[in-house]
Design a protein that fits this description.
- The model has no long low-confidence stretch (mean pLDDT 82).
- It is built from 5 helices and no strands.
- The N and C termini lie far apart (64 Å).
- The chain has 98 residues and is an all-alpha fold.
- 33% of the residues lie in helices and 0% in strands.
Length: 98
């Protein structure tokens, strides 16, 4: 097992600033669910990772990148529990003693 880090893609290509308009390059730093990937996954250096995060946020603000991806509506997780047997009727009534 090698402990050597992969080189930063921006340092390797000698790119000084990350451009928020370069969507094809920024998509490599976003997961399929729309989350910004970490340095450990992308291999970016600290300086360029913060620039990438800022560029992704700016591109999202200008509608160049989506905040979340469309598609898998139901993947499970925390909001997946069945709560059909819980009585919610007393919440709507305003006759509780305070």
């Amino acid at each position: 097992m090698s402990s050597r880090r992969k080189p930063c893609p921006y340092c390797r290509d000698k790119i000084d600033q990350v451009d928020f308009k370069d969507i094809s390059l920024l998509r490599r730093f976003v997961s399929d669910r729309g989350k910004i990937r970490s340095r450990r996954i992308t291999g970016a250096c600290r300086r360029h990772q913060s620039q990438v995060a800022r560029a992704i946020k700016r591109a999202r603000e200008l509608a160049l990148l989506p905040y979340v991806t469309e598609g898998n509506e139901h993947r499970g997780g925390r909001g997946d529990r069945d709560r059909g047997d819980r009585d919610r009727g007393d919440r709507d009534r305003g006759d509780r003693d305070r």
